[in-house]
Amino acid sequence: MSELKPARILAIETSCDETACAILENGRALLSSVVASQMDIHARYGGVFPEVASRQHVLSIIPVVQQALTRAHLTLNDIDAIAVTQGPGLAGSLIVGMNMAKGMALALDKPIIGVNHLEGHIYSSWVYEAGENVPPEPQFPLMALLVSGGHTELNLMTDHLTYQRLGSTLDDAAGEAFDKVARLLELPYPGGPSIQKAAEEGDPGRFNFPRAWLDGTWNFSFSGVKTSVLYEVQSLKKRSNGIPVHDLAASFQKAVVDVLFKKTMDAAREFGAKEILVAGGVSANRTLRQTFKAQTEFPMHIPPLSLCTDNAAMIGAAGYYRYALGHVSELEMDILPTWPLS
Q1: Contact by Cβ (8 Å): 48, 16
Q2: Contact (Cβ atoms closer than 8 angstroms) between residue 251 and residue 210
Q3: DSSP characters for 27-57?
Q4: 265 near 297, Cβ under 8 Å?
Q5: 131: left (phi over 0), alpha (psi -120 to 50) or beta
């Protein structure tokens, strides 16, 4: 690949309930990252309340952008281009970030780059804190496991911005299953961290929940394991034996991680990948991270915890490569954009 042109990107992410802004140099060096979380606000509803989320974005977006610039010791005139999430996401949330980005780009006469949120998660593994030792870049061909609240899929990357989706979830995404099982076990929102915390004191071998291997495909299915937890809880309640929440959480978590790990490893071997990348909100799960890092067959790339959940740094990284390689199209909000991108 030819030398990429240098650029300083200001990125905005408002696809769901995090208002975020980050500034990156050359797609990797993170100069600043600010995330205003709405988690405490939505916890009372047991999930994200879309209208509340969009209103909170309106209140937070300008202070978040200003804070990101201040932390980077830059002004808007120091920015070369603006990247923004254009989908998938909540319509009311996306439009706040996109309008902010459009207004800035128009006022500054700067290019604007629309970024797919899923692509952003993948590119989180390219990011490092400016001033720290530069980690090696992921090398192609690369097997990318994208695992989040709404998506679980395997993508083969043969170059920057070049994806072949091998398989995806046929029903619940892994993160969605975590949230639903957390509610079954009466654990607080968000479900992922609650399951992980409960599982730390549990026996992952006590309950043998099913693994949907879906032999012959690279697809995933987590509805069955979720339903098995439901039936087990109902059975335990009928027997009045009490609910061993910690053991149920640990056994469920292991069932999910086993499938994610084995299918990713098998796909990497099958398609001749050099390295493995794991990204998305569920990549913050400690058991998942430990399981993948323990294998020595492939070099591993898992973003730091701060870049696993929604953030603008990942949008800036993907935006940089789209800007530098000329893969920039007309900016349009798309709640469910085509993925993988062509």
Answers
A1: yes
A2: no
A3: TTEEEEEEEEE-HHHHHTTTS--HHHHHHHH
A4: yes
A5: left
Q: Which residues pair with 123 in a beta bridge?
A: none
Give the residues across from 257 on adjacent strands.
none
The alpha carbon dihedral of 320, 325, 326, 329 has a sign of: negative
Quick one: CATH architecture of 142-301? 2-Layer Sandwich (3.30)
pLDDT tens figures, 117-134:
999 999 999 999 999 999
Chain segment 200-212, per-residue pLDDT in tens: 999 999 999 999 9
CATH 3.30.420.40 positions along the chain are 8-127+305-324, 142-301
Superfamily of domain 8-127+305-324: ATPase, nucleotide binding domain (3.30.420.40)
d(CA 142, CA 319): 19
Kindly state the helix (H) or strand (E) to which residue 266 belongs, with its residue range. Answer: helix 245-270
With 0.85 as the threshold, say if the pTM is over it. Answer: yes
Distances (CA, A) of 307 to 3, 22, 46, 183, 238: 26, 11, 23, 26, 43
